[in-house]
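Problem 12. The chain below contains 403 residues. Write out its predicted structure in token notation.
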Amino acid sequence: MIVPRPALTAVVAVGTLVLAAVPALAASAPVTTAPLGTAPLAMAPLATAPLATAPLGTAGHHPEPPPLVVAEGLNNPRGLAFGDDGTLYVAESGKGGAGPCQAGPEGGEVCFGRSASITRIRYGHQKRIVTGLPSLASRTGAEAIGATDVGVSRWGTVSFTVGLGADPGLRTKVRQLAGMAKLYELGRRGPRPVADLGAYERKANPDRLTPPDTNPYGLAVSGRSRHVVDAGGNTLLRVSSHGRISTVAVFPRRTVPAPAGIPDLPAGTPVPMQAVPTSAVRGPDGAWYVGELTGFPFPPGQARIYRVVPGHRPTVYATGLTNVIDLAFGPHGRLYALEIARDGLLSGSETGALVRVGRHGGHKVVASAGLRAPGGVAVRGRHAYVTNCSVCAGTGTVVKIRL
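Solution.
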């Protein structure tokens, strides 16, 4: 379904997350930049003054200062993760390429290229350590689908997912897409595929929706196994150390009232909505926590976080969130949710938010000013690191926020 919007477009076709940026996003106000090559990223503060943590609009408080930039010049940056040594890795979805091109889900063209990558940030320096990964993007290079998330094992092994956002059968029709919808591991000789997640969706199709749809998105590493959230398939999958895939959880569809302002759809009309899970993180209690973007009509305040115990159905852990794109646990076992669009994907606003989750309500906005369509969050010490402008080609950043 195509939903025209003036500032930021988000389309879910069969549960697949597709984000589209426009010039207003790339032209957002500048943020403070930290000099690269100074102090180690995870060992010394990169700013002298902490960011304000009061909710926006609180009386007696100054507006939030802009977040501090620790990496820049990124192409559609999405998920990110720390290694035990403090090295930060970022998945960049790339900016597509010269083609072949085909009709995209929003009516325009998307073109293939090998521009997705994995960036390493260490001791204040950033470097693309994996390049040439498959990427699909608009002619401008924005709203790309490519590398979507990255994880690091306790032994330092780097894994990453590459999305697709389509029926996995498309890969047999367009040979250049053969490397998409897979989980990779970085070895001494470069990346190697570990699991074909698209093939699993095509064969198993756990949510029983047709045609099958796959968009491997969030990644979490636990011991020698990896867990992947398939936003297109509405599933949490486990990939063993030998590459065997199994379904851990399937996230349900539900019916919601349409919000006001959608052309030809009266407010309150019942609309079936898919979960579109985007992120998974293991909690201090050993359970998995999965955040959902939600599908069309992307109603504000309707995104949930599920708690998943393998062998049991998912249970709702928290409600009242909006378009969750990533999750992370921070100090004192507190859970943080990253909202790609604080006011909803159909609001016309590209402002996101980092939210401290209260299980029984009372969520608190930790940071929002300066966050433009954020795409991923990782926590180290007392700071969150967020990929910002996650649908922008060449102007994406990683910002540092004090918790």
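Discussion. The chain has one domain: 9-259+268-402. Students who got a different answer should revisit the alignment rule from Section 12.3.
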